[in-house]
Design brief:
By secondary structure, this protein is α+β, with helices and mostly antiparallel strands. Helix content is 33%, strand content 23%. The strands form 3 sheets. It has a 6-stranded antiparallel β-sheet, sandwiched between helices. Strands 4, 5, 6 and 7 form a 4-stranded antiparallel β-sheet that branches. Strands 1-2-3 form a 3-stranded antiparallel β-sheet.
Length: 330
């Protein structure tokens, strides 16, 4: 039976975040099975999307190369809300064990061989300006003011994705260029993750129809949702020129792209927007309001609108939709 832990915290006092992490790092093994008692426990800063830094917990046995990372900010919020520390430790241990999967404990040497992971490389699209530090250590491809990064998807389920970020060192070891890496990721995205274009009403209230697969039926909705089948980093589909062309064919012309989040974008046919009397400036304001109220910082893609020109096959920022010195401020 587990001993009762002794904390050097005055009864009734609330630990600050650093003390919370220090105590968790020191005591979490008490809540894990015997095989973890010699594991190395670390909590360290992790650079996430949009320069957000979170504190990731890893618990690594000597024979493990790839392990889950659990972010402490989420659990600290529960602690601040009144959850008892011992109960929280138990929850963290349970969550950790649920995310452990020996089938994805790849050897580092395995991942460093391109042929072993080539069909698992997928794109993600982020804001370029707010991920400059990430771009220093990871290969990326610019699309207007956005940047496509790359990840190796080891496992994907309905509720979570296990992935490893592709670094400059990996790409160098593979002996390929950024252009080749980008091509591989786009090809995989097409092959393994279907693209969906559905009207927002059916997403919310009915059975969604994929307009990319329905010939001769033009959507009438002013707002369409464009994403992938998994709804994970689904905004990356706009990195594929073929997808942008298919969307133009489906809606019958040029359109605006509203960056809903890194997981999806909204498509607004220009003809319908014009009929409604809306302007790009108003659309941009709508994007910023949604970002401020509904989207977490690490999932914000952009604070302005993009336009796709069907004739010239170009996706670019709509300058009228920008608010000077306000983009992406949270």
């Amino acid at each position: 039976m587990k001993d009762i832990l002794n904390y050097s915290i005055e009864e009734g006092a609330i630990m600050d975040f650093k003390t919370f992490c220090d105590d968790l790092e020191k005591n979490i093994l008490e809540y894990l099975p015997e095989q973890y008692q010699k594991a190395e426990v670390m909590i360290k800063p992790v650079l996430k999307n949009n320069s957000l830094v979170l504190h990731g917990l890893t618990i690594r046995n000597p024979d493990e190369k790839i392990v889950p990372t659990m972010y402490m900010e989420h659990y600290y919020e529960k602690y601040q809300a009144g959850q008892e520390i011992e109960n929280l430790m138990e929850n963290i241990a349970v969550d950790y064990l649920e995310h452990c999967n020996p089938q994805i404990d790849y050897q580092v040497e395995h991942i460093m061989e391109l042929d072993n992971v080539k069909d698992k490389i997928m794109p993600i699209i982020l804001n370029a300006k707010h991920n400059k530090d990430m771009a220093k250590i990871r290969p990326s491809t610019r699309i207007d003011d956005l940047a496509v990064f790359y990840q190796i998807v080891l496992e994907r389920s309905e509720y979570s994705t296990a992935s490893v970020a592709v670094s400059n060192d990996m790409m160098e070891k593979w002996g390929i260029s950024t252009e080749e890496l980008h091509h591989i990721s786009i090809e995989n995205n097409e092959k393994y993750d279907s693209v969906l274009l559905t009207d927002i009403e059916s997403v919310l209230f009915g059975t969604p129809e994929n307009y990319l697969e329905i010939e001769g039926k033009t959507p009438k909705s002013p707002l369409l949702v464009l994403s992938n089948q998994t709804k994970s980093y689904g905004a990356s589909v706009i990195a594929n020129p073929a997808v942008l062309e298919k969307v133009a064919d489906a809606v019958g012309g040029d359109y605006y792209v509203l960056p809903s989040s890194v997981h999806e974008v909204l498509i607004c046919p220009k003809e319908i927007v014009k009929e409604m009397g809306m302007t790009p400036k108003e659309l941009g304001k709508m994007v910023r309001e949604v970002n401020q109220q509904e989207v977490s910082r690490d999932e914000v893609l952009s604070d302005h609108v993009y336009s796709y020109d069907r004739e010239n096959k170009v996706l670019e920022t709509v300058k009228e939709s920008k608010q000077r010195n306000m983009d992406m401020e949270r």
